[in-house]
Amino acid sequence: MKTEFTAEQLADPATAVSSQAIRKCVHCGFCTATCPTYVLDGDERDSPRGRIYLIKDMLERDAAPTADVVRHIDRCLSCLACTTTCPSGVDYRHLVDHARAYVEARYRRPLPERVFRTLLAWLLPHRGRFSWALRLGALARPFAPLVAGLDRSGRLATMLELVPRRRSHGERSPRVRMQAPHPDGPRRGRVLLLQGCAEPVLLPSIRAATVRLLERLGYAVEFAAGEGCCGALVHHLGREHDGLAYVRRNLDAWRGRLEEGGVDAILATASGCGSQLKDYGFLLRNDPDYAPLAARAAALARDLSELVEGEAVQRLKVGVSARIAYHAACSLQHGQKIVGRPRALLEAAGFTVIEPAESHLCCGSAGTYNILQPRIAARLGRRKAERLAACQPDAIATGNVGCAVQIGRFSGAPVLHVAELLDWATGGPPPDALHSAMGDGAVATTAPASVGGGHA
Ligand code: SF4
Ligand code: SF4
Fold first, then answer.
1. Which one of 50, 94, 253, 373 is most buried, by most CB atoms within 10 A?
2. Ligand approaching nearest to the C-alpha of 74
3. So what's the pLDDT on residue 329?
4. What domains does the chain contain, in order, with CATH numbers?
């Protein structure tokens, strides 16, 4: 697509990146077939190609964003399915990020909208605040139908629905008790585990299972004091400055360990956070004080499925079995381009794994999207839950806490993190949600552990 930015506009690094992205687009429209918002309603302005046109026009004219353009940008999930489909390699991710930051800086949203978005940005990235909000939400949940009647936007009722019904017993605290390192266990490496913000509050069992699994596999797991949200939640709200502040805070927390060397990986158990970590180098590319460290952190960022090897899981497996429908999170399959590895690991652990139809389509979670766009998100969530239910699973597995909570709203089957299943299959406790759904007999191990090379 031809662009007409002036030299002065192109001097802005974000505009230069957007111009490159737009110029790569050849209007072919392949991306429309896999864009969830286009698949739902068939509106070109809610397709990647349509949004590229709208963003191009807005940026080229240096125009104030109109309510109409903002609506179509807001409806984008940032699921990045379009980047998987696009044959021209359009960098839609950074284009829409730029558009969101541009809108945030130059568009005055109605007051209730501004207040609501500010509240989300204040609340969600902080474990303490979010934890208190969930407690209040649990008390208010019985009044959800009343709230739904009063709030026409549907946002407050959705927030109440998203308060998880399950909290794993014995793991209510975001703190994890580390296992003592096994003196004879192999040392595969040293892993910095991102604590993040929402995941340890919503489903602390994920992190507990991850620590058990990694230590059993021979990794030393460390947490850095002072780190927190990866920055993605506010970044996707267009709050670029706030998002970068979170990125810098995490880099400061890791600086000592990264500079002394010896860290083999920075692990994010939420693939949304992993996708953001892998972009740290790009995000701070123009900051001379942080660019080298950001690039190093991004190069070390790993998803759990990149760290764990199928052979090691096979050696440790204790003989559990279950029929698992695997939901590929967009931030993993499109954001990080990791396809196949999580399924292979689950199969190596002994599970029967089925992939649902339309596995490329987003479940509607997408950070704060299911709160800000509750109707579109609910349609996508229901559609995803139906496709997963057609697999007739004992449980659904995913690699992202947002997907687990969103799909859990619409699914009768328990939704678990891949780490919880791998931990169980290699000698950890059965996940509570699966225990309740399948009963004691079904989750009992069927063969003794073979723990060569590791420790339980
Ligand atoms: S990121 Fe997802 S919702 Fe947005 S344009 Fe691309 S495919 Fe559509
Ligand atoms: S698939 Fe790529 S090149 Fe084709 S219209 Fe979509 S973004 Fe443009």
1. 373
2. 1
3. 98
4. 7-106 (1.10.1060.10), 111-162 (no CATH), 189-306 (no CATH), 314-443 (3.40.50.1860)
By the 8 A CB rule, do 178 and 210 touch? no
pLDDT at 186: 56
Q: How far is the centre of ligand 1, averaged over its atoms, from the C-alpha of 80 (Å)?
A: 5
Which pLDDT value is given to residue 173? 43
pTM above 0.85, yes or no: yes
What's the CA gap between 233 and 253, in Å, rounded?
19
The pLDDT, as a whole number, for residue 368 is 94
- Distance, in Å, from the CA atom of 81 to the CA atom of 86, rounded to the nearest integer, reads 9
Helix H or strand E encompassing 268: strand 265-268
Q: Return the exposure string of 99-136: e unless at least 16 CB atoms fall within 10 Å of the residue's CB, then b.
A: bbbbbbeebeeeeeeeebbeebbebbbbbeebbebbee
CA 47 to ligand 1 center in whole angstroms:
7
Q: How much is the pLDDT for 179?
A: 47
Q: What angle do CA 302, 87, 13 make, to 5 degrees?
A: 65
Span between the terminal Cα atoms of the chain, in Å:
56
Q: What pLDDT, on a 0 to 100 scale, did the predictor assign at position 188?
A: 85
Residue pair 217/452 in contact (Cβ under 8 Å)? The answer is no
pLDDT at residue 434 in the model: 79
Low-confidence ranges of the chain (pLDDT < 70): 166-186, 436-456
Q: Ligand 1 pocket check: which of 34, 56, 78 to mutate, most ligand atoms within 8 Å of Cβ?
A: 78
With H, G, I as helix, E, B as strand and everything else as coil, classify residue 364: coil
Instruction: State which amino acid sits at residue 113.
Output: E
pLDDT of residue 435: 72
